[in-house]
C-alpha cells in the first residue's frame, strides 16, 4: 500500500522559517539532489538515447558526463559563468568529444525553436527561485518560456528539485496554463545517500513536464509517484500540492526526531493510506537524553493501544526501557483498517521506520520489529452509530491481556480514549457482559466513596451524573443491594447503547433520567443523597480538563451540590486534568464549598478521584479498626467488609488490595 504522510504536530514548524533556516545553513546548492547513480532509475524512464538533451545551469556537475558514458551523445550543457564553461571544456574535450558546453543565459538562449527533445535541470530552478518575490517569479517565467520555445512538441522538461511550496505553486500554475502533462517522482535514492552522510534529509523530487499541444477544453494530467509506488492521478493542483506538503512536513518531523531526543514530550506522526484514512500512528519514545545507539519498532496488537504502557508517553518510555533499546518506535494500528498479518505490517512499515532512527545509527544496523505475540490481536467492530450530542461512536469487542475479551464504547472524535468498557464472558454459548466486574480503574476508586456512608443506612441514596455503558451503575445494582441509584444522562442515544450493547437494565433500585445533570442537582431536595458521583467527560479539550465538564466545577453549582447532599454526604469527582495550574484552581473552587477534600491517585492514569466532604474524617480510626485483618487494604478493605460485599465482586476487591494501601487517601 502506497502511503502519503501527514505529521500530527505540524505546528512545531513555521514553514517559511524552516525553509529559510535550511537554505541558510546548507553548504552546497547541489549536495541534496543526488548524483547520476541516485537519479538514473528515474531518468532512464523518460530519456532516450536518441534524445537531444539540454542541461541548463550545468555548473561543475558530473551529470552530463555520466549520461555521455552510458551512451547519450547529443548533450548540450550551458551556464552563465565563463569560468565554469572553460573548466568543463578542458576536462571533457578529449575523453568526451561530442559533449558541447556553451556560456548562455537560460532566460535568453540563442538556440533555434524546438531544438531539443529533453531538458534536464538539476537544481537550477531552485537556485534561481531562492526567494518568493516578484523578481524571482519574473525570472522563472522567462526561463520556462525559453524552455517551452526550444523544446519540441512531446519533449520533456525533467527537473530535480526540493519543490518548496512557493516553487511548486508557481510551476504547477505555469505548466497547467500551458497545457503540459505533469508527473512528479520522489527520489528515495537521493535521500538515502544524504542520510548516509549524516546530513539533513528533505524529500527530493523529479518533476517531469511533457510539452503537449494546448487545447482549450483539455484538463491537465497531474500524477505523483512516491518511491516505487504506481503513480496516482490528481484532479487539482491543491490536491497534489497537499500531498507533497504533507510529505515535506513528515520529513521535517522525522529530522526533528532524529536530532532531538524526545524524552520529555514524545513525537507522533500519522501514516495515511491512498484512501486518505490514517493507517498507522507512529510514536517515538527515548530511553534517556543520552545519545541513542540502539533502535527498535514495537507493533501494538489491535485493541491494546489505549493501555497505559502503549497509550501514554510515560508508558511508552517504560516500554522502551523494558525493550532494552535507546529509542523505540511504537506503532498503533487503526480501526477499520485491514492488516494481513504481522509480517505484512513489517514489510509495509520498513520504508518509513528508518526515517525515525537516531542520528548516527550504524547504517548496517538491522532494526528489530517487536510485538507481544506473533499475531496482530483481535478487534471486531460490532456497530457504528451517531449521537446528536456526542457525535459518531463505535461499539467494538477486543481481546486484551491474558486473552480476556471486553466490549468498548469509543467516540470517533477521541479514539484514543475508551469511553466505556465491560468484560465479556460466555453464558449458554452467547457473549454476555459481566456486570460484577469493573474494567475502568477509576470506577473502582470511586466506589470507595461508599466508605464514607454509615453502613447501617438503608437505602444508600446514590446519584450518578453520566451513564456511559452503565458499568458503574450496573455494578452498584448487582453488588450493593442497599443502594438506590439514580443516573442522569444528558444523551438519550447513550442510554440506548448501554441497553443494546452493555446489558444495562433498570429496576426499582436503579433508574435513569435523560436530562441535564446540572439542572437535576439544582432542583434536588436538600439532603437528598448520600453520594453524588460525577462521571462525565468534557467535550471541550481546550481548557485542559478532560473530566468533568467545567460547568460541574463552577462554585455556584458546587454550592447546590453541597445542599443536595446529606450531612455525611460526599461529592465524588473523577478529575482528569493535565494542567497543574488549572488543577490547583479547581481545588480552590472546591474548597470554597466543601471544607474537607480527600483524593486518591488512580495508578497509571492522569486522573484523581476527589472525595468532597461536609465533615472531617479520621482515617486513623478506620485503619485501626481493620488492623486485625492483615490481608486487607486496611481502611479500604474495611469499607467493603462493612457493606458485606459478596464473593461475586471478588475481582474488584483483589485489584484494590493490590493497588491501594493505607496511604490511599490524601487530604487537600
TrEMBL record:
Query: What InterPro entries does its record include?
Result: Lys/N-term_MeTrsfase_sf, Methyltransf_11, SAM-dependent_MTases_sf
Domain of life, per UniProt, equals: Eukaryota
Report if keyword Chaperone is assigned: no
Q: Does the keyword Transferase apply?
A: yes
Q: Name one GO biological process term.
A: methylation
Listed Pfam families: Methyltransf_11
Keywords for this protein: Methyltransferase, Multifunctional enzyme, Transferase
Q: Name one GO molecular function term.
A: S-adenosylmethionine-dependent methyltransferase activity
Q: Which residues form the Methyltransferase type domain?
A: 56-159
- Family membership: Belongs to the methyltransferase superfamily.
Protein name in UniProt: Methyltransferase type 11 domain-containing protein
Query: Which species is this UniProt entry from?
Result: Argulus foliaceus
